[in-house]
Amino acid sequence: MVVKSATKKKLMDLGIAENFAHILADDRKWDDVKILPVGEIGQICETDSETAASIKTIIDGANQKNKLENSEAIGPVTAVTLGRKVRSRARVKSTADMDSYNKDAKLLSLDDELSGDAVFKSLVAAVEESGSPRFTDRIYHDLTEAIHARGIKKLTKPQAKKVVAGAIVALDRASIDPYEAAGIITAQSIGEPGTQMTMRTFHYAGVATVNVTQGLPRIIEIVDARKIPNTPTMTISLHSDKSASAEEAKKLAAAIEVTTTVNIATLETDVAQRRLVLKLNKSNLKQKNMSAAEVKDKLERATRLLVQGDKPKNPSKLTLIPGVHSEEDLAELAENPPSYTMLLQLEEKIRDMRLKGIPNIERANVQYKEKSGRKDEQGNDIGEYYLSTIGSNLSRVSEIETIDRSRTYTNNIIEIYDHLGIEAARQAIVNELQATLDGARLEVDTRHLLLVADVMTSEGEVRAIGRHGVSGTKHSILARAAFEVTVNHLLKAGIIGERDHLTGVAENIIVGQPISLGTGSVELFYIPEE
Description:
Blueprint: H1 5-13, H2 18-24, H3 30-33, H4 38-45, H5 49-74, E1 78-82, E2 85-89, H6 103-110, H7 118-130, H8 137-149, H9 157-174, H10 182-196, E3 201-204, E4 207-213, H11 215-223, E5 233-237, H12 246-256, E6 259-260, H13 261-264, E7 265-270, E8 275-280, H14 282-287, H15 292-303, E9 307-309, E10 317-320, H16 327-331, H17 340-351, E11 354-356, E12 363-375, E13 381-390, H18 394-397, E14 409-410, H19 413-420, H20 422-439, H21 446-457, H22 477-483, H23 486-496, H24 505-511
Antiparallel strand pairs: 1-2, 3-4, 5-13, 5-14, 6-11, 7-8, 8-10, 9-10, 12-13
Helix pairs in contact: 1-2, 4-5, 7-8, 7-9, 10-21, 11-20, 19-20, 20-21, 22-23, 22-24
């Protein structure tokens, strides 16, 4: 069961009992729930007709209220004539109330978890006494953990001073000098290991023939800000109360994995009688957690055709005829049979039709992690089940009620940006670069990766490092021209009268003068003694 949390919340807000709302929201959006007839509501909720009728009344009332509000908000609705049918078209952008901001709670959440530790406090006092303004909570945290790792629980005042003095020396060594060419150093630090990378492929999630892009191709994907990576993948974690159950993980995998018609049935095209016959595979249906009635219902809703079963309940064969929408159309079939082209078009449409699952999630595999970081009452590590997917759709997966959103991850950086924002995308760039380099057993300082991520996301969106992104939007004309399409950049700059102030590296090298970095950033005069 994959419960749509937004649908369940809306039903509960309308006053429908939680148990009924939970069942009705199973793999259904609000648009699917509001068109359910009374009989089907009673069947789904396993309740009497009176209760089902009252639920239907509440849903219809909310639907009418929404229509009234929408018509008042957008004014008269434009009627669009399509053939013989007249459909009303009105698009309204939905809005949601913002969560209230609690300043005190936010400030408390920023406090370090070790801030009450004795070692942490000793270090803070020593730094305040030394007058160094460069220490952050992260430095205090790392120093405290390192001291605890050595079995020391408290620090005397002289010991704290000694630790702080050593940390100040290390900070000075780690800090970059003013006017240092940080970008060039970063490019060299990533580029040099990049030339050593070989194209490696790793079997993913224990499934043969499935490979994940690694090495240099993956680095190129990340810095090019590709909208869809070659091998999009997701790691989906379940809530702590569900993660220990393999059955729950299998149910979720069956629910989110895309199931097409050919996955659960064999298609036969009867050219003589101009009809399409689907022979359902019962074992595949059971594996996908579907019923024959569910397949029949979804085919009817998707094609708007009459789907005939060989049996009233639990059919094994389903028949579709092009152009036959109801029982009445069967009587006219002899006089006006469907064409061969219509039959082929219907077969093409049904063959790849998505009956269940989330778009783009081609496969979902249940995995087991022995050390999940959680512990039982005795202090032992608790294992957990999670899903590894081939394909990614973060926004749709996040709607599922049983998943843990805080531990669900995708390697598609653009999806992270669209769903979670630019800060999350920046962190994802760092994570993906680090994971790729670690996979190739190459060491690159994290600060170089941070600089790349900062440059790619500094404008509020994920930009590629190339002529369509960072390099193509530099302020210097000569720097843009030196990268690619030289004539175009120079011609455009000449037409609009653009000026180059020669503040960067490439433009100064082109005109043959010292760059304003390193020794070129200062002027040195020799004044001899008289």
